[in-house]
Design brief:
Blueprint: H1 3-16, H2 23-34, H3 40-58, H4 60-71, H5 76-107, H6 114-134, H7 146-156, H8 166-176, H9 181-210, H10 217-244, H11 247-266
Length: about 270
């Protein structure tokens, strides 16, 4: 791939990874609209590493908070809250890890079709809209229960279907469980860390097995660009979501899904 293609794909990944609008739907549109070839697993891993580094940097205080809680370096109350947040992330990650393992190593389903992505983009956009409109809680992260975390983790399984949006479905699930908009986004972002890490490890295993692993300048460029863009997007989203809510993303999903449907039936 040439430099223009690499930069464009890295920007798309960086923008859409954490917004509740489905990165898979947008990444599918890029080759359709441009005629470019598939970026391949090496470049895909590179862009995801970039977004992972961005979320780790933004939520570095939460990472330190959880680490201090695990090793007991803070006050007893802070240690308890740090451990609790870590446990909740683990609980919320387990369902997707199990389901993802089944799909990746056993079922090997290919769900990356325009029809599937268009329908999931619209349907889960509606789910997010209902959650944003009718479920406006006030629950803090420290008030979350294990059942809250488990419910969010169960909903995250749907993100294995392209077009669902991991961010969108986990934000909706958090709203359903009583978190407010900003805390729902906060927990969703933190939950992306183990998910992106796990997906990256699985993809790396696959690419090593195929013998096509290649880390070169292209991958470094893609990683750097997706890191910078994702970090900017996270900052903007966390500052904006409390005031505006999720409805602009819901309407955008409806438009995107409708456009994909039109393309599917008339191309």
């Amino acid at each position: 791939m040439n430099l223009t293609q690499i930069v464009a794909l890295a920007i798309v990944q960086g923008i859409t990874e954490f917004l509740p609008i489905s990165s898979s739907g947008h990444l599918l549109l890029v080759p359709i609209l441009t005629g470019w070839p598939d970026q391949g697993l090496s470049l895909d891993i590179a862009t995801h590493v970039g977004t992972l580094l961005a979320v780790l940097l933004y939520f570095r205080s939460d990472m330190i908070f959880m680490m201090n809680g695990i090793i007991g370096r803070s006050t007893s109350e802070e240690n308890s809250q740090g451990r609790q947040l870590f446990v909740h992330l683990v609980i919320a990650s387990v369902p997707a890890v199990i389901a993802g393992g089944v799909l990746f190593f056993i079922v090997q389903l290919d769900l990356r079709s325009i029809l599937v992505i268009s329908m999931t983009t619209i349907f889960f956009g509606l789910v997010l809209g209902i959650a944003d409109r009718y479920f406006k809680g006030t629950k803090a992260l420290s008030a979350m229960t294990n059942w809250d975390a488990f419910f969010i983790g169960l909903m995250q399984i749907f993100a294995l279907i392209p077009g669902t949006s991991r961010s969108g479905v986990t934000m909706a699930a958090a709203l359903f469980r009583g978190l407010d908009r900003s805390r729902a986004a906060h927990f969703s972002m933190l939950l992306s860390i183990p998910v992106i890490t796990g997906a990256g490890i699985a993809a790396t295993i696959k690419i090593f097995a195929s013998g096509e692993f290649n880390v070169g300048l292209d991958a470094l460029i893609a990683c750097s660009i997706s890191f910078v863009i994702a970090y900017i997007v996270i900052n903007l989203l966390m500052a904006w979501i409390k005031r505006v809510g999720y409805m602009p993303f819901v309407w955008y999903r409806f438009i995107l899904g409708a456009a994909l449907l039109v393309f599917y039936f008339y191309s």
